TrEMBL record:
The name this protein goes by in its record: Aldo/keto reductase
Keywords of this entry: NADP, Oxidoreductase
InterPro entries found in the cross-reference section: AKR, Aldo/ket_reductase_CS, NAD(P)_OxRdtase_dom_sf, NADP_OxRdtase_dom
Organism annotation: Bacteroides faecium
Domain NADP-dependent oxidoreductase: 21-257
């Protein structure tokens, strides 16, 4: 497994397993399957309501805790120093762990400065090995990064072949911050799985569209966390280290970028209201 070194020296697998939209009932089984396939990085969040499933799986899997890398995120309803501090301890309880490898602010709303102070405190106390943010656009990312004590190690954002986050990656390089992709398959939108460019490149290597898309992001030093509830797909998504895309392949895929979201915009007031009220 290839790893990336975060800006505090911690190493993180560049490929992990995400549990967004995995039901609480299925989560333990899915995470257990992912670990059996070889995944060592698992991404969850308070708002996914499946941290306990992750905790059950990692406590039973037989893999030493220090060989696993667990990410979770503080939701908007827990924003602010006091609420965030309490929620971090609750996440630790649900995850059945003494520490979280990577803790992120899930959305840039509410008192996220207070949230980040609680996260910095947890980091200093050894409850968290690395901290960062999620869904922070370049403007808010720079604002936080310039005024916090501990520079974010990661910014998890929508990143796929149709929205490649070129500008954001350039900005974050100034701070040593890594992009972590959510939605690396664009959830199938924009005819992702039948894209001609990805299909043709895949044929050259005997690889699927999904594998080509993951490989593209990995070669751009972007952390990926594909999700599937099917073990055979988990295996497919994991097998992306036995081939490499050429510069011509990379250039062809770069042409697919529209630099636009396929999901939602934080500049849309109605979407912001929806996010604030989600999972209350």
């Amino acid at each position: 497994m290839e790893k990336v070194k975060l800006n505090n020296g911690i190493e993180m697998p560049i490929l992990g397993y995400g549990v967004y939209q995995v039901t609480p009932e299925e989560c333990e089984r899915c995470v257990s399957d992912a670990i059996s396939v070889g995944y060592r990085s698992i991404d969850t969040a308070q708002a996914y309501h499946n941290e306990e499933g992750v905790g059950n799986a990692i406590s039973k899997c037989g893999v030493p805790r220090d060989e696993l890398f667990i990410t979770t995120k503080v939701w908007i309803s827990n924003a602010g120093y006091d609420k965030a501090k309490a929620s971090i301890d609750e996440s630790l309880r649900k995850l059945k762990s003494d520490y979280i490898d990577l803790l992120l602010i899930h959305q840039p709303f509410g008192d996220y400065y207070g949230t980040y102070r609680a996260m910095e405190e947890a980091y200093k106390a050894g409850k968290v090995r690395a901290i960062g943010v999620s869904n922070f656009y370049p403007d808010r990312f720079v604002d936080l990064a310039e005024f916090c004590e501990i520079t974010p190690a990661v910014n998890q954002v929508e990143t796929h072949v149709f929205n490649q986050q070129i500008k954001l990656q350039e900005v974050m390089k100034e701070y040593g911050t890594k992009i972590m992709s959510w939605g690396p398959f664009a959830e199938g939108r924009n005819d992702f799985f039948t894209n001609t460019t990805l299909q043709e490149i895949g044929k050259e290597y005997g690889k699927s569209v999904a594998q080509v898309a993951l490989r593209y992001l990995i070669q751009r030093d972007i952390i990926v966390i594909p999700k599937s509830t099917h073990k055979e797909r988990m295996i497919e998504n994991f097998n992306v280290f036995d081939f490499a895309l050429t510069p011509d392949d990379m250039a062809a895929i770069a042409e697919l970028d529209t630099a636009k979201t396929l999901f939602f915009s934080h500049y849309d007031p109605e979407m912001v209201k929806w996010l604030i009220n989600y999972s209350k």
